[in-house]
């Protein structure tokens, strides 16, 4: 396990995924009944962009730094508010990972489970989220957590799957865990983030997911098409059981996101 997210924290792919995460979680707040979140690949939860590893790649400069320069549209406000609050309204030094974002949305009856396998990253995660009775911290395989924790006591929930893609069969692991997860929690919302490097692998993933015969499926892709971007330049998010009208919200805002990132040749896909 060599992957450490600190090198990539706050990059354009993080902004894309975390912004969509805030849109999903805002929908959960529309009902009073409690919800459950499982973050299968949690990372450490809070990233210090002054850390030498973040500074080495500077990936956040083409992501969150760009966004903060703009007066954003209403649908980005909650995400930006979370980033700003973490930095107490001052200059950005800390960037929120998915556990921090999920925690921000919890009401008293809601629950969050965070799985992180890397021992050092798990120790940091523990430090960041210790003694919170609403949060379960699991130093275990995130896919095993899907099997162990579903269905949740709360009748609704989000399973956020954001693996490092270090192993060549990561897409297969995701599909297998979706089979298990959907059997146990068929009406749950499942959101999967993935890099788009090899189009053939992604196409295969899409057809494997389609074969699961899921009624409601949303695919979102963002392509930077920026030759100077010295990092991953395309990624996607697949959402099973997406909330109503999320597709329209994404279509309305993704052109803005490309503008904020200053990707003049950037493109996006939103497909039901
Ligand atoms: C892309 S990062 C997660 C970032 C995080 N979701 C966020 O948005 O802030 C992937 C994380 O998964 C961890 N990891 C790798 N394999 C895992 C596994 N099988 N189960 C759980 N965590 C794993 C890595 O150590 C890494 O911290």
Question: In a few lines, what is going on in this structure?
Answer:
Helices cover 39% and strands 19% of the residues. It is an alpha/beta fold and 272 residues long. The strands form 2 sheets. The chain has an 8-stranded mixed β-sheet with strand order 5-4-1-6-7-9-8-10, sandwiched between helices. A two-stranded antiparallel ribbon has the order 2-3.
| CATH topology (fold) name | Rossmann fold
Uncertain regions spanning at least 5 consecutive residues? none
Helix content: 25-40%
Share in β-strands:
15-25%
Number of helices: 10
Could you give the order of strands across the largest sheet? Answer: 5-4-1-6-7-9-8-10
Give average pLDDT, whole number.
Answer: 97
Distance between the termini: 34 Å
Shape: globular
> How many individual β-strands?
10
Give the radius of gyration.
Answer: 17 Å
User: Under the CATH scheme, which architecture would be assigned?
Assistant: 3-Layer(aba) Sandwich
- Overall structural class, as computed from helix and strand content, comes to alpha/beta
| The named CATH superfamily | Vaccinia Virus protein VP39
Characterize the main sheet: 8 strands, mixed
């Amino acid at each position: 396990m060599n992957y450490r997210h600190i090198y990539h924290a706050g990059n354009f792919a993080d902004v894309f995924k975390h912004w969509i995460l805030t849109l999903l979680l805002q929908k959960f707040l529309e009902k009073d009944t409690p919800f459950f979140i499982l973050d299968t690949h949690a990372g450490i939860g809070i990233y210090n962009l002054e850390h030498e590893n973040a500074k080495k790649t500077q990936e956040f400069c083409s992501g969150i730094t760009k966004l903060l320069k703009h007066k954003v549209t209403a649908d980005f406000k909650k995400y930006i508010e979370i980033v700003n609050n973490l930095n107490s309204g001052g200059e950005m030094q800390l960037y929120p990972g998915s556990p921090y974002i999920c925690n921000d949305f919890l009401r008293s009856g809601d629950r969050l489970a965070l799985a992180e396998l890397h021992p050092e990253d798990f120790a940091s995660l523990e430090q960041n989220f210790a003694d919170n009775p609403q949060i379960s911290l699991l130093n275990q395989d995130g896919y095993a957590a899907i099997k162990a924790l579903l269905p949740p006591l709360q009748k609704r929930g989000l399973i956020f799957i954001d693996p490092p893609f270090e192993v060549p069969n990561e897409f297969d692991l995701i599909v297998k865990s979706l089979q298990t997860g959907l059997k146990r929690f068929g009406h749950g919302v499942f959101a999967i983030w993935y890099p788009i490097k090899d189009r053939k692998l992604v196409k295969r993933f899409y057809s494997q997911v389609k074969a699961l015969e899921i009624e409601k499926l949303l695919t979102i892709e963002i392509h930077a098409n920026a030759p100077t971007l010295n990092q991953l330049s395309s990624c996607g998010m697949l959402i099973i059981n997406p909330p109503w009208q999320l597709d329209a919200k994404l279509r309305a805002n993704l052109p803005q996101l490309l503008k904020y990132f200053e990707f003049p040749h950037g493109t996006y896909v939103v497909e039901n």
